[in-house]
Design a protein that fits this description.
The chain is an alpha+beta fold and about 190 residues long. It has helices at about 5-10, 15-55, 65-90, 105-120, 145-165, and strands spanning about 100, 130-135, 140, 170-180, 185-190. Helix 4 (about 105-120) crosses helix 5 (about 145-165). The chain starts with a helix and ends with a strand.
């Protein structure tokens, strides 16, 4: 809102109106997505609470059942905490200072951070193979931390998709491939 008067003076009221409309639509879409994501995290917690309440109302709660539900609730609260951290990261402005970085170094660091974070959260990482193909000499002019965290989040989500799905047989793999096309760098992450 603070930049609107300057923008309006340079680009005219019609352009300012169009920009405000687009910004309002984007904001509304973001709030709806956020609401949806929070509901998806909290709904299983509510279900677990109801199930636990019924167990205690019976007078003889099943210890295994209670433990499973409490574990699920703890996992969901961890998701909520991560979601809130991600939201904070999302609204943090990208630093203006950028420098040339080797992409392979950023990817290696992202792999280490993602795996450490998953292990700390109790997510089994051993059944999943993580492979990355990044040309050694490929560089990018970038705000390192933002790219690093984007790759960490993408790899973490790929790993977590295996945890959320029923057990599958055979090799489970998260692959990160980086290619260059003209002046662009393309990062492709797949989970199979």
């Amino acid at each position: 809102e603070t930049q609107v008067p300057a923008f309006e003076g340079v680009y005219a009221p019609a352009a300012t109106k169009a920009v405000r409309k687009i910004a309002a639509e984007q904001y509304a879409a973001m709030v709806q997505r956020t609401h949806h994501d929070i509901r998806n995290i909290l709904s299983p917690v509510r279900t677990s609470i109801r199930s636990l309440t019924k167990q205690f109302e019976k007078g003889k709660p099943d210890g295994k059942f209670c433990k499973e539900n409490l574990s699920e609730m703890a996992r969901r609260l961890e998701y909520m905490e991560q979601f809130l951290n991600d939201m904070n990261e999302y609204v943090t402005a990208t630093p203006a200072d950028r420098r040339r970085e080797r992409l392979v170094d950023i990817v290696r660091e992202a792999q280490e951070i993602a795996l450490a974070s998953l292990r700390n959260a109790g997510t089994p990482v051993d059944p999943v193979i993580l492979s990355a193909t990044v040309p050694e000499n490929l560089t990018v002019y970038v705000a390192r931390r933002q790219l690093l965290m984007a790759i960490v989040h993408t790899l973490t989500n790929a790993y977590e998709s295996f945890v959320m799905l029923p057990k599958r047989r055979g090799k489970q793999e998260v692959k990160l491939d980086v290619t260059q096309k003209d002046s662009s760098r393309i990062l492709n992450v797949t989970d199979t």
